[in-house]
Amino acid sequence: RFERALATAALELEAAPPHRISGLRITDLRPLDDGPQQILRDFAALPGAAGFGLYRLGQGTPQPVLVLHPERQLAVGSAFKLWVLDALAEDIARGRRKWSDVVTLGLRSLPSGELQDWPESASVTLETLATLMIAKSDNTATDTLIRVLGRKAVEARIRASGHAEPARNVPLLATLEAFTLKAGPPEALAAYAHADDAAQVAQLARMAPMLDPARIPPGALGADRPRGIAEAEWFASAVDLARALDGLRRRSDPRVLAILAVNPGISPARRAALDYAGFKGGSEAGVLNLTHLVRNRRGEWYALVASWNDPAAPLDEAQLITLAQRLLDRVQ
Fold first, then answer.
1. d(CA 216, CA 221)
2. Whole-angstrom distance, CA of residue 203 vs CA of residue 208
3. What confidence tens digit (pLDDT) does each residue in 4-63 have?
4. What is the value of pTM for the model shown?
5. 11 class by beta-carbon count within 10 Å (0-12 exposed, 13-18 middle, 19+ buried)
6. How far is CA 50 from the centre of its chain?
7. β-strand 74-75 against 235-236: which pairing, if any?
8. Peptide bond into 121 cis (omega under 30)
9. How many whole angstroms separate alpha carbon 154 and alpha carbon 146?
10. 58 alpha carbon, distance to own chain's centre
11. pLDDT score of 317
């Protein structure tokens, strides 16, 4: 117990007497006397634009527990991959595909992930692609799934999930397309941002023969400054992503929840206090998103979505993670 917080401490003792302390790690700081109003004030104080929503999930639509700007459309980075997972789960539910179907990797993307380093045309199952896409945020896995499923199929699931402004994500960008636009000439990025859907599709078609991660200069997408977060991105509000999580939760296929839970997005101590924890986030310079699906020991389901954008500066990831953890502590 500290003056203003409680913490989890892991002690390591030497096996031989006198069993001296050989290691000490302090994690999971939990503020004392924390409450909804303090959390709202701390979120509102973030520079740039932020929004969050903590929702109770049940039979109807997600019910807000604590929210701040929950309908604000923000760039969410890799959190859009939840809709790619949903599109795959929809195809499997309709019998068009199976988790065990084998496909070959397509054009490589940039990290995060590991498949960009795998052999050319390596064979992988759809389940492997989906698991790496969610647990490791693997961009090559994501782009391969978009190629297999079709861009329009993912766009359809965004609309079906209840997204308030699905047109913001049409045409749906593959990760390598987004990276290429962000790292390319500013005039090309500006042209894309101001074009209508048909012109954007045409621009992506012209760009397709030149897509190659090796053509993106090292450092062009570094963490020093945000690039194109309002022009070449994926957008959603807190309530949009809460609806997407709720749709995934309601699917009868247990593999969907299993894939979301591979990386729970929280510390082992916090995970141990919950019955279930699933997670997908998004991160790049100027963009942070944390999207959690949890069930507490009482069997109550909750969705927590927190997003933060600043086109002028990189963001403090630890700051948003701490705020999200304070919200999750309220549902245990």
1. 8
2. 9
3. 777 888 899 999 999 999 999 887 777 777 789 999 999 999 999 999 999 999 999 999
4. 0.91
5. exposed
6. 15
7. antiparallel
8. no
9. 7
10. 22
11. 94
